[in-house]
Each structure stands twice: as C-alpha cells, then as structure tokens.
C-alpha cells in the first residue's frame, strides 16, 4: 500500500514537491507525475493544483489526504504488530498430537514451554485422527508418518522404532513363538488401521495381515491389553519403554522389527515465514526429544 499510488500521493503532499517525492521513492519525477495523474483520473477528481512554483492541495485533495494518512498509519500499526508477533511468540497456537504420544512425551514438559512463552495461548488437541492442517485450522501437528503432505513443511523430531512384545504372563501361559511362522498362531492385538504388520529381519521381509483378538480404535488400549496378558502387540518404543524397563512387557521375536520407515515429525502449513509461536513450539519439541527419552537399545 505504501508503494502504491496512494502512498505516492501522501509522499508528494508531505515532501511538498514531485521531485522530492520521486527521489524518496527512487523513481523519476516524470513517472511520479504520471502516477499522480492516473490516480486523479481513476478517482475522477483533481487532488493537487500544479504550478511551476509549488503544489497546492484542492479541497477534495485535502480530505482525501487525511483519509489516506489514516489508512497508511493503520497499515504501519498492523505491520508493527505482525513483526512483534514474529519476534516474540504470542497469540493463539493450536497443536495436534497423537493421543498416547501427547500424554506421555509432550504434556509432562508443557510447563517449560508455557513458563518461557507466557504470551502464547496454547490449545493442545490429542487425537489419533490424521488431522488436516488447513481444514482443521491446526497451526502445528505432531505426526508419526512416512508420508509428508505436499502442502506441509516437516521437521523430523525422532525415529520411531517398533518391536513385537507381550507380557511375561502371556508368555508363561502360551509360550513364545519360536519363529515367524508361529507368530500368527498366537493372539495378536492391534488398533483399527494398524494392519498389516510389516516386519523385517536383515534381508528378510514378511507381512502379517491378521485380526486383532480385541477390536479397538485406541493405541493406548492395545498397550494396556498387551500389559495385562491378552496377546502380542507391535508397539513403538516410545509407547512401551517404561513397561519394558519395569518388566511388564518383554520383547518377542526380537530379531524381527518393523522397518524404519516411520518417524516422528512436526508439521505446519507451508509459509515463507512461520509464526514465532510455531517455531518456538518446534524448538521446544526438539529440546525434549533430542535425545529421545525412551531407550533405543532394547
């Protein structure tokens, strides 16, 4: 707006001459005169009387200048607020994260983010649904995926290792599968949408397309079912790390693991300059997940 014909008109009035306004805007006096004439033609009114000695505002020009000055002032204020938002994280920030991951690895450290950035109005939505950044008006999404949408920018936060596991009680009652062929004779549990299991052992690749012994849409329920001895599950280390350390779960067929195709990402809408609040939360996630708080050596 400030580089438009309106901005030129205001600069001419304030500078008192076409040549001075042209120098300030790094254009020629002839081009400045041409743009002023174009503005007057478009508005259908003369704004400035031009003489060889000076420029004089017409009555309509005086009224128009006051309006233009207010508009340009409002734009300056809006730009100032925007620059302030970018330099100091503030305002609404809507974050989406997988339910279990959010509870285990984001929520316990949120106080650190909120204390550091008290002007951010955080909204944390936990869901296992694949939210749409644009349609759901999400500023930042934590997603465990191998597929980055073309309209999103992605920041890799951590790897996502997955292993087969069961409770010692289940193994005591049913025995552990001795090899891959025995696996499908056991009770297997997985949330809706998590079939098939793709597993690898060195160069070997296998697919398990089974049916969950208990049907559920919740990954957290799958973890709890595995802990209480219902069956064998394929779980991420970030989800079962504490259960493995306490002995509530033990690895099964440890030579077989899910391929390392999935990783944990922070996604936001593609934009030349992400908001300061978005970047602050990404930095916060990097701080709490590097190194990952779960054991990668199991």
Task: Explain what the structure shows.
With 298 residues, the protein is of the alpha/beta class. The protein has 3 domains: 5-87, Winged helix-like DNA-binding domain superfamily/Winged helix DNA-binding domain (Arc Repressor Mutant, subunit A); 91-158 and 262-289, Periplasmic binding protein-like II (D-Maltodextrin-Binding Protein, domain 2), CATH 3.40.190.10; 162-251, D-Maltodextrin-Binding Protein, domain 2. The protein is 41% helix and 22% strand. The protein is built from 11 helices and 13 strands. α1 (5-15) crosses α3 (29-43). The chain starts with a helix and ends in a 9-residue tail after the last helix. The model has no long low-confidence stretch (mean pLDDT 88).
CATH topology of the largest domain, what is it called? D-Maltodextrin-Binding Protein, domain 2
Number of strands: 13
The major β-sheet equals:
5 strands, mixed
> Which architecture of the largest domain would the CATH scheme give at its second level?
3-Layer(aba) Sandwich
- Structure classification: alpha/beta
Name the CATH superfamily classification of the largest domain: Periplasmic binding protein-like II
Radius of gyration: 31 Å
Give the helix tally: 11
| Residue share in helix | 40-55%
Distance between the termini: 60 Å
* Approximate strand percentage: 15-25%
Instruction: Give the overall silhouette.
Output: rod-shaped
